[in-house]
Structures are given as structure tokens and as C-alpha cells.
Design brief:
single chain, 311 residues, alpha/beta, Quinone Oxidoreductase, Chain A, domain 1, Rossmann fold, 7-stranded mixed β-sheet, 6-stranded parallel β-sheet, 28% strand, Zn-ADH-like_protein, ADH-like_C, Alcohol dehydrogenase
Length: 311
């Protein structure tokens, strides 16, 4: 099969080449990949650490080529969204059926490919905060892939959404259109305390967001794009009468739980136009180097999608 292979001799770290077809385990389906979306963590960390000729990639959408031998998962011909620790940047992918969601017939599979990491991370992070109706929820890194989904889903859940971005003057209208009630520049004060926060940035922004939590509030640490340490000043973790029972929780999407319902539900919302996938760059996988350079250069606000085989 054709695949994007790790090649550290190239500028992007990738080249199009040939790789052996994957051999699915009994609980895995074989997927014919139509599109994949890139994530910052893949191109900034995983790619640099992987050996040459490896096939990476977390997100992929396509069609079931061969159903799982154990009878689980969707039948052949089903359009699907998939997630896994690797294997998405190829024509064929073997995926655990617990990590496959069905997509509506006729859906744009490029848009579907944005759902797994970004959409599911936002959904599950918000669930860690608890019921959202009437709550104040802060989303940092709100113009990124996870951030955009988190703003929209928090609004759908009935929250008062505060979207934090590095450039509110330019991105404010866009974020309000997605559902943000307020757009702020981090670390600008968020006004009244917030009941929950989804942090997609890390470093000093995570520390500042934690300081904004109301009693019983929860901050979910999803992204760490700054690469900076989180240094809390003395007193930041004191639980006095105004700051008691606040929680800081770590996050890992591939924790072994069944992702099928979440992926299927999110795919249906994107296909129906109820969620904006936020595609800011799209092209054939021959142009992967362009997409990677744009991501690493922080020139993209949203998702980069590679269509397999298209120019």
C-alpha cells in the first residue's frame, strides 16, 4: 500500500512510499482510508521521535474494507471515523473496533477525519467538568482543533462559554460565531470565577486558568503546546473559603474505554452542520509538507486535512 513514511532526511520528516499492508487482529477492522487530519502533537513530537519508515497518524476517516473477524464493529462498506496510536497516514488501516465510529452515508470524509482526536477530546474533557447547564466554562487555545470543538460543545451543553485566544481582536467574531459568549486574551482576567476549564495550552496559561476556578471547579489539562513547565506560586493550591475543592485533572483519550458512541455521535453532528469541523487547510497527502510547516509555524487556526491520493 501507499503511505506517508517517516523519513528524517526530508524537510517535513515524511515521504510518500510503499509499506506492507496491515494485518488486522481478530478484533480489528481493515479500513480503506480517504482522509486524515493532522494534530500538533503528532508533527511536533511523535514524528521527530519515530524511526524511519514508520507509519504514524492518529485520525483517519474512510470505509470499512474488511470487517473484524470476531464479528464486532461495522460491516464492509460502512463509512467510518477511526482513531489509534498510529497507522492513519496510509491507504489501509487496521483499527480496534472499540475505536471506530460510524459516519452518515454521504458525509464528507475529510470533515469526518477531524472528529476523533479533536472532537472526542473536547467532549470527554467537558464531561470531566460535569453538567454544564448554567455553568461558566473557560476554553484556552480556543482557535485550535480541540478548542473549537470545546467551545461549540460547551455552548450546546448550556454553558456560558469564555474563549481564550492570543488574538481576540482578529478571532473574536469567529469564536462568537462558534458559540463563545466572551472572547478574552490570555491571561486576561476572566471576570467572575469559572466552574470549569479545558486547557489546551499548558504552561503559564494552565496555571492562570486554575487560579480562575470557583470552589468545586475542575480544570482538565488536555493540551501542552507551549512545552513549558507548570509552575504554581506559593499559595495557589491553598484551599481557603473561596478556593476550596478545586481539581486539576490530567487527560488521556486512549484510556481503553469504548469510543464508538462518542465518535458516532460527533460524526453525525458534523455531517448535519451542527458542529463546525474548523478545517483551515486541506490538500492531497502529496502536500503533507506544506500542512506540517503551517502547523509547526502556528499559522493554522483549526484543522489540517490530507485527502489520500488527491493532488
Amino acid at each position: 500500500m501507499r503511505a506517508l513514511l517517516v523519513d528524517h532526511s526530508t524537510a517535513s520528516g515524511l515521504r510518500l512510499g510503499e509499506s506492507p499492508d496491515p494485518v488486522p487482529a481478530a478484533h480489528q477492522a481493515l479500513i480503506r482510508v480517504s482522509a486524515t487530519s493532522l494534530n500538533f502533537g503528532e508533527v511536533s513530537h511523535a514524528l521527530s521521535q519515530a524511526p524511519d519508515d514508520a507509519v504514524l497518524g492518529w485520525d483517519a476517516a474512510g470505509v470499512v474494507e474488511r470487517a473484524a473477524a470476531d464479528g464486532s464493529g461495522p460491516p464492509p462498506g460502512t463509512p467510518v471515523v477511526t482513531i489509534g496510536p498510529d497507522g492513519a497516514w496510509a491507504e489501509l488501516r487496521a483499527v480496534d473496533t472499540a475505536m471506530i465510529g460510524a459516519a452518515p452515508d454521504g458525509a464528507d470524509l475529510g470533515a469526518m477525519s477531524t472528529v476523533p482526536v479533536a472532537g472526542a477530546s473536547a467532549l470527554r474533557a467537558l464531561r470531566r467538568i460535569g453538567p454544564l447547564l448554567g455553568k461558566r466554562v473557560l476554553v484556552t487555545g480556543a482557535t485550535g482543533g480541540v478548542g473549537r470543538y470545546a467551545v461549540q460543545l460547551a455552548r450546546l451543553g448550556g454553558a456560558h462559554v469564555l474563549a481564550s485566544t492570543g488574538d481576540p481582536a482578529r478571532r473574536g467574531e469567529e469564536l462568537r460565531a462558534l458559540g463563545a459568549h466572551e472572547v478574552i486574551a490570555h491571561p486576561e482576567p476572566a471576570g467572575a470565577p469559572v466552574d470549569g476549564a479545558v486547557d489546551n495550552v499548558g504552561g503559564a496559561q494552565l496555571v492562570a486558568a486554575f487560579e480562575k476556578l470557583a470552589p468545586h471547579g475542575t480544570l482538565v489539562a488536555v493540551g501542552h503546546t507551549t512545552g513549558e513547565p507548570e509552575t504554581f506560586p506559593f499559595g495557589a493550591l491553598v484551599g481557603d473559603g473561596g478556593r476550596h475543592d478545586r481539581s486539576l485533572v490530567t487527560f488521556y483519550l486512549l484510556d481503553g474505554s469504548d469510543l464508538v458512541p462518542d465518535l458516532t455521535w460527533l460524526a453525525a453532528l458534523v455531517a448535519a452542520g451542527d458542529l463546525d469541523p474548523g478545517i483551515s487547510w486541506r490538500g492531497g497527502w502529496q502536500r503533507a509538507d506544506e500542512a506540517i510547516a503551517a502547523l509547526l509555524g502556528r499559522r493554522l487556526h483549526g484543522k489540517a486535512v490530507l485527502d489520500v491520493k488527491l493532488g
